[in-house]
Amino acid sequence: MASNTWSIIFLAATLVALASSVSAKVFTVGDEKGWTLNFDYEAWAKGKEFVVGDQLVFKYAAGKHNVFRVNGTLFQQCSIPPTNEALTSGYDVITLATPGRKWYICGVGSHCESGGMKLFINVLPQSVPPTPLVSPAPSPVPSGKMFVVGDNYGWTLNFDYQAWATGKEFVVGDKLVFRYPIGKHNVFRVNGTQFQQCTIPAVNEALTSGYDVISLATPGRKWYICGVVSSFSAMEYLFYLSEFLYVTASLLFTMIFSNLLYSYVLDSW
Ligand SMILES: *[C@@H]1O[C@H](CO)[C@@H](O)[C@H](O)[C@H]1NC(C)=O
Ligand SMILES: *[C@@H]1O[C@H](CO)[C@@H](O)[C@H](O)[C@H]1NC(C)=O
Questions:
Q1: CA of 201 to the centre of ligand 2 (A)
Q2: Would you say residue 137 lies in a domain?
Q3: Where do transmembrane segments lie in this chain (predicted)?
Q4: What are the tens digits of pLDDT across the range 242-257?
Q5: Are residues 12 and 115 in the same domain?
């Protein structure tokens, strides 16, 4: 009975999560033309309202183009950032996780300067909570598997993600979904060193939408961390727990001891 109730609660939560992910808009950059040469992306973006949680899809023949997220200066100069990695899958899905101005360019040859493969958008903050839809909208058919990190637990404290990842086969084209309550956690892509030290990169922007979809665009090792400094981290929790046990134990001890004293007193009376 109790487990049934929990199943229903979990199902409801999953439906809500699904509904809110579905209500976000998906923009295929360039619509049916996709990400290509000699297309006016400025005109394409004009009049469109991009909101946090929406997704951009860059569609192109893999190997022919790629996608770099750049800053305003690099966008003007059509130059590729030294650190940022290109998206190259041919079906790159970017979740707009934070409000503000975003710039994307193609880093192949002179596709940016002479081919016009540059996109600038302004992402608005999410004003109203997304309204759940009654019927699920058709979503783009992504190739590859979708991994919800932590499965039913999502992206949360005190979960063994190493054990979760063990034995899973992640292939280019697959997607990772980080699910968590907005504001409670976030997701940073880091390198091996930063992963070891749990340090946040200076340049990298966090994903914060609470339903962050990452397309695994390139082969190789990838590291992700939560950048939220929790006042209640796993370590502190353990410490708190042991302190609590200590207090309980000494309390118990005091109670037993005073009981003994009390009975001793009673006995002697
Ligand atoms: C843009 O990025 C480049 C390379 O990372 C950096 O040198 C430059 O200072 C940045 N410009 C702005 C305005 O952030
Ligand atoms: C990891 O990133 C940091 C900051 O960007 C950099 O200083 C460090 O050299 C990088 N380490 C590796 C192994 O790439």
A1: 8
A2: no
A3: 244-265
A4: 444 444 443 443 334 4
A5: yes
Q: Is the pTM of this model over 0.85?
A: no
Ligand nearest to the CA of 204: 2
Same domain, 91 and 158: no
Q: How many domains does the chain have?
A: 3
State the Cα torsion 232-164-205-132 to the nearest 10°.
-90
How far is residue 84's CA from residue 191's CA, in Å, rounded to a whole number? 12
- Mutate which of 83, 84, 190, 193 for ligand 2? The one with the most ligand atoms within 8 Å of its CB, which is 193
Is residue 17, in this structure, part of any structural domain at all? yes
In a domain, 138, yes or no: no
Q: CA-to-CA distance for 72 and 62, rounded, in angstroms?
A: 26
Q: From residue 134, how far is each of 10, 22, 52, 54 by CA, in Å?
A: 19, 10, 22, 19
Q: What are phi and psi of 3, to 5 degrees?
A: -70, -30
CA of 72 to the centre of ligand 1 (A): 8
Encode pLDDT of 21-37 as tens digits: 446 899 999 999 999 99
The residue segments making up the domain with residue 176 are 146-225
131: in domain = no
Best mutation site among 84, 188, 191, 221 for ligand 2 pocket (most ligand atoms within 8 Å of CB): 191
Question: pLDDT (tens digit, 9 = 90+) per residue, 54-102?
Answer: 999 999 999 999 999 999 999 999 998 877 678 888 999 898 988 899 9
